[in-house]
């Protein structure tokens, strides 16, 4: 399992930026309540937030627990709050956050309120974890070609040229779900099957799809939406479905026309022969 370790404060590395402020007389540790960290795409992340204990406070006697988590100002469910764990790391010393990034499914800022205590006193510290919107690209337009006989009458089959639908994830993307929805109310739909999850970037997916119903002759446009809680905004893919009669029908109709012409000619010749024979018989009878 991939795990990313982020260090902050005096040991800042990478994308985590923290501001340390002076401790008051009542503080147990010197720590900024406005600390923040941008979470990576990995399934698990470790964030180390360095702290300085107040005079007379032993790091080994400190405890820490998450008492509240809100996302964009709203409390999250209990199972989401459990995705952020915290404990004291005496060796640094630091607050160590173990974050299950996959469980923070929605894009936004998660503010974790941590209670730091030494058995007698307690201090609340706010840390903001930023869950950025995923970077996802998809083929914007797909040209689908269909050749049919008479599907509306159940005659003949259908041949389809279905170009591949590619979805690409950026290097800092981890998608744990992808919802695929057709936006058209018509019975003639383009049905796209979602991929197995999770998908970690950089990755390229090929999504299978099929045409349902009997789109009319000509060109129609069908729109499919790809969405996920990890995406900053949904993506739409347009399918231009062009349906035409199978060219083989021209050959079939030509052969049928030729057969019909030959048959009619033979019938006319036979009728004429019979008429001529009847005329000769009548003439012969008259002579007798």
UniProtKB/TrEMBL annotation:
UniProt-recorded name of the protein: Uncharacterized protein
Organism: Amycolatopsis vancoresmycina DSM 44592
Residue intervals passing through the bilayer: 247-264
Key words, A-Z: Membrane, Signal, Transmembrane, Transmembrane helix
Signal peptide: 1-25
Keyword Transmembrane: yes
